[in-house]
Design goal:
Length: 407
């Protein structure tokens, strides 16, 4: 057998430690698959190791520090020094992808990052390898396990957002500061990466419009359940006209949608293209050992000489006003003429109603409507007008609905 391949490990926290252990356990399997046995050349932590010495001793660098400083500097230096790099760092790829891909190309080495999006779900491999010559039209899914756990908990127990978040923190699914997850920024970074890979466009974080789940109320979920809908935080990257749209938003799904049954901390990603119809992949979105196993998969690909295919780079316009269908929750005074006034506002803005449920609330009433698809700017204009009507008792609440039916 050839010489061992020496791995420089940057970071030995949750994922780094799991990777270190997994590499020891699976070294024979890696050697059998790739022809060379892996060995750790050195470990860098805040309290241990020296980057230059580790770089000098390594053939492949595995970055599991997280964040962008000092990870960006280390990864750039490793690539420029001719080392292949594997990382699980979504922020690094989403913010500095162009610079890092250029450095890898110029040095003739690989930069792999399967674990940066959807944990162990092999979506990057599928886009860059299986579908390398396919014209992908849409990539979308549940790419944040923390929010999917919180929404599943709210739906199954009727818990408030705050209680469901507390439970997620108790179980280790949410960090002490969960703002990036619950505010949608984590999913936005992952969608920027997926859009870049699927469409070859240099999608920056600022190109992704995102919303989180912090404003979701348990009764929105309960009413939607009556309409057969389930709530997910979705990331969607799609071709629209001559451009692309990349967004993250909470969204109701009809029951036969392939993403509707994805519960708890799981992730699931769908890819659509005319020639493949659609592919759905799901699995754990995080966790030390799960993420480490995706990192190990990247390492084996590098050692086996498999190279990812990069879509030809092109500039695509970011389209922001796209058409969507909405769920609308209104609390109104229960008196004659209210429904007609609401219908008038919607009608003047060319927003048409697909279904409506009305409930009494003492002197007030609650109207839950689902609209047909229309340009979002029309819907939001109608929403602004509705909010000013004197019989509206609380701020109207709107959540997108995916109307597409799957068979
Ligand atoms: N955790 C997950 O489930 C998961 C899932 C998918 C992707 N990821 C990604 O995987 C990466 C690692 O996450 P993690 O959860 O393993 O993080 P973590 O537990 O916080 O571990 C970070 C490691 O990096 C080291 N480190 C931090 N700053 C450093 C510095 N300035 N110089 C040298 N070493 C430094 C830490 O050193 P000390 O040990 O000395 O503190 C620690 O060993 C991140 O990019 C994350 O987004 C994680």
């Amino acid at each position: 057998m050839s010489d061992p391949v020496r791995i420089g490990l940057l970071g030995r926290g949750t994922v780094g430690d799991a990777f270190h252990e997994l590499l020891g356990q699976r070294a024979d399997a890696v050697a059998a698959a790739a022809g060379r046995r892996p060995e750790i050349a050195g470990v860098l932590r805040r309290s241990e190791g020296d980057f230059d010495a580790i770089l000098e001793a390594s053939e492949v660098v595995v970055e599991l520090i997280g964040g962008t400083d000092p990870a960006r500097d280390y990864v750039l230096r490793a690539l420029r020094a001719g080392r292949h790099v594997v990382t699980a760092n979504k922020q690094l790829i989403a913010q500095f992808g162009d610079e890092l891909f250029d450095a890898a190309r110029e040095a003739g080495v690989q930069l792999r990052f399967e674990a940066a999006v959807a944990g162990v779900v092999p979506v990057i491999r599928v886009i860059q390898e299986s579908l390398a010559a396919t014209e992908i039209t849409k990539v979308f899914g549940i790419v944040n396990g923390t929010t999917n756990f919180i929404l599943s908990e709210m739906a199954s127990t009727g818990a408030s957002y705050a209680d469901a978040l507390g439970r997620a923190q108790e179980l280790g699914y949410a960090e002490a500061d969960p703002s990036d997850d619950v505010g949608g920024a984590d999913a936005a970074a992952k969608m920027a990466i997926l859009a870049r890979l699927a469409f070859g466009a240099p999608v920056a974080l600022g190109d992704v419009s995102y919303e989180g789940i912090t404003e979701i109320q348990p009764d929105d979920i309960a009413y939607a359940k009556e309409l057969g809908l389930s709530l997910k935080l979705l990331g969607v990257a799609e071709r629209r006209g001559g451009g692309i749209s990349v967004r993250v938003f909470p969204c109701f799904l009809y029951p036969r949608h392939p993403l509707a049954p994805v519960e708890g901390p799981f992730n699931a990603v769908m890819v659509e293209a005319p020639t493949i119809t659609e592919i759905t992949m799901s699995g754990p979105g995080a966790g030390g050992v799960e993420t480490a196993s995706a990192v190990l998969g990247d390492l084996v690909s590098i050692l086996s000489g498999q190279a990812p295919v990069h879509a030809a780079r092109q500039s695509l316009e970011i389209v922001r006003d796209i058409s969507s269908s909405f769920y609308l929750h209104l609390e109104v005074a229960d008196r004659p003429g209210v429904l007609a006034r609401i219908a008038d506002v919607l009608g003047r803005n060319e927003v048409s109603v697909r279904s409506v449920v009305q409930r009494g609330l003492g002197d007030d009433a609650r109207l839950v409507m689902v609209m047909h698809e229309c340009p979002e700017s029309w819907f939001f204009k109608a929403l602004d007008e509705l909010a000013t009507l004197e019989f509206i008792r609380a701020q109207p609440r709107a959540i997108r609905v995916i109307e597409e039916e799957f068979v």
